[in-house]
Write a structure and sequence with these properties.
Elements (H helix, E strand, L loop, with lengths): L1 E10 L5 E10 L4 E5 L6 H9 L4 E10 L2 E2 L5 H7 L1 E4 L6 E5 H15 L7 H15 L9 E2 L5 H15 L3 E5 L7 H14 L5 E5 L5 H4 L4 E6 L2 E6 L1 H10 L2 H4 L5
Parallel strand pairs: 3-10, 3-11, 6-9, 9-10
Antiparallel strand pairs: 1-2, 1-4, 4-5, 7-8, 11-12
The structure holds adenosine-5'-diphosphate (ADP) and magnesium ion (2 copies).
Length: 252
């Protein structure tokens, strides 16, 4: 589904290279975890995948179902089935969460050249999805993210992910300091949405999220490169020994 080949990327503003040759293949149906110390480039990788224009790809390619997506903007990538969960969700005071979610679905439909979702169909979809994920729809009447607790922001994010039916979900949970409630929302949501035609990239600094979302493959990112790939046991080993074995003492 996703093939990252020798990906090099730099910060557009000052030219600093952050990603220094990443190779990664992610098959449909799989959950890949990317772990690594602070500053190793985990968030940069998620932004480059999403197509954020603060970064420039200088070498290599990103293929989605065999086709390069480098020329596609963030909206086109979303239409193709990418979903990036934001580490720091935006607050929109005047806009009910429900309205925002409907607009997000319609933006995706427009980019795909399909007709807008009708209000009754949208209401039905929200009801089904909130039931399936065990997320209360009450919160959706409130303005987007305003005064939301950490757990509520995560519920909203998972709800959005479910409604958009993405093919590739990228969750960057690195620095968000998830409390137990939020951790459970994210892991239950991901587990409920796991399916044979969907892949997940779960980015996390800490192992504890991976107690709840058991990944198929674990990668260690260090200084812009994947330095180790293994199974779920690799995450446990990192929890015990830290990153020192892979990245050198100073970065661990
Ligand atoms: P991680 O998510 O693994 O902690 P990041 O991808 O956030 O790492 O950052 C990797 C490195 O790139 C850090 O040294 C960070 O300061 C730097 N960096 C990332 N994005 C920017 C940016 N837009 N401007 C300046 N520095 C950046
Ligand atoms: Mg960081
Ligand atoms: Mg980060």
């Amino acid at each position: 589904m996703l093939e990252i080949k020798n990906l090099h990327a730099r910060i557009a503003e000052d030219g600093t290279e952050i990603l220094k040759g990443i190779d990664l293949t992610i098959e449909a149906g799989k959950v890949h975890a990317i772990m690594g110390p602070n500053g190793s480039g985990k968030s940069t990788l998620s932004y480059v995948l999403a197509g954020k224009d603060d970064y420039e790809v200088t070498e290599g390619d990103i293929l989605f179902n065999g086709e390069s997506i480098l020329e596609l903007g963030p909206d086109e990538r979303a239409a193709a089935g990418f979903f990036l969960a934001f580490q720091y969700p935006i607050e929109i005071p005047g806009v009910a969460t429900m309205t925002f979610l409907k607009a997000a679905i319609n933006a995706q439909r427009k980019a795909r050249g399909t007709s807008e979702i009708t209000t009754p169909d949208f209401m039905r979809l929200v009801k089904e999805t909130s039931k399936r994920l065990n997320i209360s729809a009450e919160m959706l009447k409130r303005p987007l993210n305003v005064g939301f607790s950490g757990g509520e922001k995560k519920r909203n994010e998972i709800m959005q992910m479910a409604l958009l039916e993405p093919k590739l979900c990228i969750l960057d949970e690195t620095d968000s300091g998830l409390d137990i409630d939020a951790l459970k929302v994210v892991s239950d949501g991901v587990n409920a949405l796991r399916s044979p035609d969907r892949a997940f990239v779960v980015i996390t600094h800490y192992q504890r999220l991976l107690d709840h979302i058991v990944p198929d493959v674990v990668h260690v990112l260090s200084a812009g490169r994947i330095v180790k790939t293994g199974g779920p046991e690799l995450a446990l080993e990192l929890e015990k020994n830290g990153y020192a074995d892979y990245v050198g003492q100073e970065a661990a």
